[in-house]
Amino acid sequence: MKRPVAALVAALLTTAVASAQSYPDDPGVGVERGVEQLNNSGQVGTVTLFSRAPNTRIVVVIHGAEGRAESVRVYRGPSCDDLVTAPTYELVDLKNGLSSSTVKAPESKLLSGNYNVVVFSSTAAGARATACGHLYAS
């Protein structure tokens, strides 16, 4: 009796994992870009984009931000040094170095070379930028 139940549980878990990863046009590995420190913050990390057509999931991992919440935004601009004033997309706040959000934009648009992910020192208004990653196609 125990073996059939264990086999059924294993089959269900395998099926759940496989179905959770099946998105058209995305093998599940995502497109990863680096995030560099700003203002001598010491915060560095990665931003990974996963196509969820017509949306994109954005996962930001920052080292040196553990233990506090920080704002994460996507800005238009050709580089981290040349951004427009207002954010294009507001992402879920970074908590313990991790943020995971879904935005209503295709991955190809975000990787056009016209967008940057910016991390701020806190969630308060007027917080300074601590890290930035430029999004571009390979």
Describe how the helices and strands are arranged.
Elements: H1 2-20, E1 31-37, E2 44-52, E3 55-63, E4 69-70, E5 72-76, E6 89-90, E7 94-95, E8 98-103, H2 107-110, E9 112-120, E10 129-136
Antiparallel strand pairs: 1-2, 1-10, 2-3, 3-8, 4-7, 5-6, 5-9, 9-10
Features:
two-stranded antiparallel ribbon, eight-stranded antiparallel β-sheet, 10 strands, globular, 2 helices
Task: Report on this structure.
The chain has helices at 2-20, 107-110; strands spanning 31-37, 44-52, 55-63, 69-70, 72-76, 89-90, 94-95, 98-103, 112-120, 129-136. The protein starts with a helix and ends with a strand. The chain is globular, with a radius of gyration of 18 Å. With 138 residues, it is an alpha+beta fold.
Helix content: 10-25%
Largest sheet: 8 strands, antiparallel
As a percent range, the share of strand residues is: 35-45%
Query: What is the average of the pLDDT values?
Result: 85
Count of helical stretches: 2
* Cα separation of the termini: 53 Å
Shape: globular
Outline the low-pLDDT stretches.
Answer: 5-22
Enumerate the strands of the largest sheet in spatial order, edge to edge or round the barrel. Answer: 6-5-9-10-1-2-3-8
Global structural class: alpha+beta
Q: What is the CA-atom radius of gyration, in angstroms?
A: 18 Å
Number of strands: 10
Secondary-structure element order, N to C:
HEEEEEEEEHEE
Offer a concise description of the structure.
By secondary structure, this protein is α+β, with helices and mostly antiparallel strands. It is 17% helix and 43% strand.
